[in-house]
Amino acid sequence: MALQINRIKKILLGTIILLLIPFVAMQFTNEVNWTALDFIVAGILLMGVGFGIDFALRKFKTSKYRVAIIIGIILTFLLIWLELAVGVFGSPLAGS
To answer: For 49-88, b where at least 16 C-beta lie within 10 A, e where not — what string?
Structure first.
């Protein structure tokens, strides 16, 4: 139980640290202009990646499956992030 709580804390801490990057950048430049919704969506995406990778590492015993699932999680994250950021596919999700 303590190991599970420790993993959750690490994922949450990693998410917070990554979200601090745009937050700090907003203090120094007008090029970065995130709203509260941007931070919430980014936090959900980053935590989803963290928990997904944690799940894959715990449930899959062979390294082939682990690597395949983790690559899939990361690629899915990147596609969603790109669509939300610049509308690569022009879907309504990006506001197009």
So the answer is: bbbbbeebeeeeeeeeebeebbeebeeebeeebebbeeee
